């Protein structure tokens, strides 16, 4: 069976997913929709697909699955529409910036029995997957302490931060998901500190550009996250998991691995300077995993609930900064009227 | 302009080039030929190309360039035919195992004014290119001594070795080309030692599985090459260039870069175990460079003459092993009736 | 001038300091005292010194300085006695486990105008000193975030933990001092989490074996500390300082730096397995620094106040674990009647 | 038993050995001799030894062993004198620059049944010893190919080169000995190339500053050596041994191991810039091994014959450069009238 795709949103990340879909022998890109007709038609032409409206894709009998790459504030609505239309859904993170809206959306998906995968691309990075595998194989014994260092090469424009929900919801959320992915146990408390060291304008917009977090679990595991919006040496993405029998670490990646030695010492080039080049392979593997799950009708992972929990952790972090104390995650998720959204896990 | 391609040979390396051609927005794969009809049709179908015979491709007005991936003993003939047919030619190395046959072939290409690029893929590896760039930028001053370590994960079947021309012509030849590429000066003498340490059958077939070489240039630069048909830890491919102001080295590549620490120490995974995964990016860049050169009608590099010289160096190495002395490269190339083949350089 | 030394305590760490004193051309070891006569006489004999009682050393006119390596609960009393006796004092950390006792002791030293250096040996490690120098030279711009990972090869006996004041006072205290040393700004808040993952007996003794901390400063800098009493791969001691213009990190040290490659990958040996071999050079440099300071009559660093503040940070950490909130360091140090102890800084 | 030492030569290397002797609890430095009285008395005073003449040391009943650190041209004579005087002898390399003189000297030592250890300090480097141990433990299977890169930070004065016997006898000789040490089989042929790339004055003095060598053994093992008198990044000393089951490598050593990351990339400091700091530990272990051998009356290693063979390999290298061919080592050693010097091995 070939999975037939509609792509919603032909921007930067839409192009990445279009390439992943068309490179996969089990998939076909049938249609592209975008608010900008030229963006849609350029991408459709490149890959021999058609331009269609969202409504046409929704109604199309020749489309099995959609990839949602539209602006964040449209995600939840589109997920609900396409769940009702019976399409399998891959949606870029986040589902929404509001936990209650996410919960409502997931109820719709749940009611329709639909497939929803959320785009935490880092779970598909080959190096982080190798960390996960090493843990699963018992190579480090029981997981005890995780250290995540995650720094962007530079701060985004303040306008972006205003829309993104701030550092915890747009940046740390990846690390929060990764911590959950590797801890093998739900996070119980979140403690966070934020400060403004990089760009005063970020502070004026009410956000932080430097953050440190400690997550704890009920059994006493710890995860530490260190974030900065600035790293002169490139896109710094390191994970280390310390366990009872050993430790496993994923090193930083650089586009070119040479070393130049001279009187100043030994110098290796900077890291990747952009998430798209750093995570090229992760994006390809992510769509492959989605195609596999649609084909095999198996549950999607990371699921909508994974998206919800990561958002709740980000909210807990923000609350912790404001209140100067450890926040029980249940303070955020406890407000959920219906815990059934977790049932699918 | 789009460069329209015919692919000759749909085997392992043909598939790699087919993917590179179809991924390039400036190129189109029009036809595939192979002695095995099913191999040709499978590959053609996957990329929306036609199956054609070699004769049809030769005569086709809708084909600008060919990629020759057929068995080695057909290369020289095909190059001559397609040069006469006015097609730009990319040919997998070697042109032929016999220096005189290569010279004759290059004369034909030269006479037709054709474009011929020879597949020394390693020149396009991003890491080795970065080494070359560092030299070109003057970061290490004058090149003085090059150290190349090149080891295969395992020995090929003896049958392959019988056809391949032996370790110097099938394996060392890549390192000889790389040494020339980086020395920036022609090799003057070749001294080589060969022994059989890995597989007695290789010795019985008259070849070696372990080799050490020293190349010298007229100005006194040295290059050292260390080859083995066995490396339990993967495909070992290292280059280091020592210069008057510093040194630059390209490190080994591994598919996954994690590190596991425990009581045994700190362990990183083995290297790539296959040239195709090690040089994935090099193959893609190689075809891109060929397309650029066809499009811009600029001289191909590495050229047919580069292929000829690398072969002559391999022949010199073999002669050195047999005679136990340094061989002047001019002893091999001096027999050329017509030095004009070097004019294009 | 030669600095003439009395050594109080001929145990494990006493031997280390005896070697450092006798290796230094500016110093001489005159006398050794120990509650166990044989320990004192063995060490004295080895280095041509005399065995004397503490009282004799106190009264000796041929002794300028003492090194205190006796059990912790004797430190404060001995410091006071030798300060009154006009000897320069090097004391192993901690001065005492009780902040108020430390303050009282420092007042005596202050009143006598004496020289007191506290043994935070890691400040003298050549690698950490190079980190400090890189910061001082402006190589990374303004310090923003510090990450310290500090893990012991194995947990000490529970008896030791009962006497030592627990993980924060015997182990984390080194990292707390290092954070202060590198932050270049006093710590404002301490948040800590502790759990028992390694040895239940430690938990039963009321202590933790795994701890994570975040320190913040008034200007918004963060330091993260990750501690464990277990590391199968050796004595894990890493520091990384992230700044506005770059980052500097001190790598782990191992006694032997070879790498073995085979089918399992590339393996380097484990780290040092003991603080004495890891910090051999630091111990030697530490005593040299003390000798320099005695000779030049310059202020000792790290000072008694440095010892006091590190202890206060450890106390704040413990309070934070118990109360689940960020502790203002002034909550601990604010109780000090007389802030004048800080004047010497 | 305590080994009582006389030290001949109180220069740079004499001081290193004096420290090693006095630090060893099994040894005592009794006397120091030097042509410059002040050099002798300064060193003797520092370590509580006496100044004596060479004749007095020769005749002394309270001296068991001597360390010869005098100029090279006195070594062979002194070895003979002290062998006749019944002292155990540690002599800095080389015994002499002339193979025949060395052979004559060793016959005297042999006739007296004396103990003679030659100072190939690198055999005692902990990292190279770990390489040797890994081989001995079978971790890499059978040794097949050795790669040694050995580069000095800068060229010595031409005057030194004139006295030293040239690059092969003063610099490469260490690598030749190391190759023998690790090959586990005698070298059969030596092929060498030399050129002048660093300092023309070296060429004018008839020597080379850049050299590449290939050694082969009868069973087909290869060792490659790459030497330069220039390395802007410090004292480059690397060894890699490739075997049938894997590979082991000793990495370069640097005094400080930090890494600074910024927009230029990741930079580690240069290597040691001097053999004495690079091989500090090796010098200490070397003297310990000599003391052990004197104490236990076991054969010294490296022996006088090891010194002889290394010199013969250096001579073979020089001959190879001059004649442009592989030199059988037996061409050099075959001239030995009496092979019995090898019997002690």
Beta-strand content estimate of chain A? 15-25%
Mean pLDDT of chain A: 94
CATH superfamily of the largest domain in chain A: Dihydrodipicolinate Reductase, domain 2
Q: What is the name of the CATH class of the largest domain in chain A?
A: Alpha Beta
**Going across the major beta sheet of chain A, what is the strand order?**
12-11-7-10-9-8-15
In which range does the helix fraction of chain A lie? 40-55%
CATH topology of the largest domain in chain A: Dihydrodipicolinate Reductase, domain 2
Dominant shape of chain A: globular
- Which radius of gyration of chain A do the C-alpha atoms yield? 20 Å
Low-confidence stretches of chain A: 337-345
Number of helix segments of chain A? Answer: 13
Order of helices and strands of chain A: EHEHEHEHEHEHEHHEHEEEEEEHHHEH
Interface with most residues: A-C, 38 and 38 residues
Multimeric status of the protein: homotetramer
Give the strand tally of chain A. Answer: 15
Domain GFO/IDH/MocA-like oxidoreductase (chains A, B, C, D): 128-248
Family (chains A, B, C, D): Belongs to the Gfo/Idh/MocA family.
Domain Gfo/Idh/MocA-like oxidoreductase N-terminal (chains A, B, C, D): 3-120
Pfam family, one (chains A, B, C, D): GFO_IDH_MocA
Structural summary, described in words:
The structure is a homotetramer of 345-residue chains. By secondary structure, chain A is an alpha/beta fold. Chain A folds into 2 domains: 3-121, 3-Layer(aba) Sandwich (Rossmann fold); 123-282 and 307-340, 2-Layer Sandwich (Dihydrodipicolinate Reductase, domain 2), CATH 3.30.360. Chain A contains 13 helices and 15 strands. In chain A, α4 runs parallel beside α5 and α5 (99-112) packs antiparallel against α12 (304-323). Chain A binds chain C through residues 142, 144-145, 147, 149, 151, 191, 193, 195-198, 210-214, 216, 220-222, 224, 226, 228, 230-233, 236, 240, 242, 244-247, 324-326, and chain C through 142, 144-145, 147, 149, 151, 191, 193, 195-198, 210-214, 216, 220-222, 224, 226, 228, 230-233, 236, 240, 242, 244-247, 324-326. β13 of chain A pairs antiparallel with β12 of chain B, so a sheet runs across the interface.
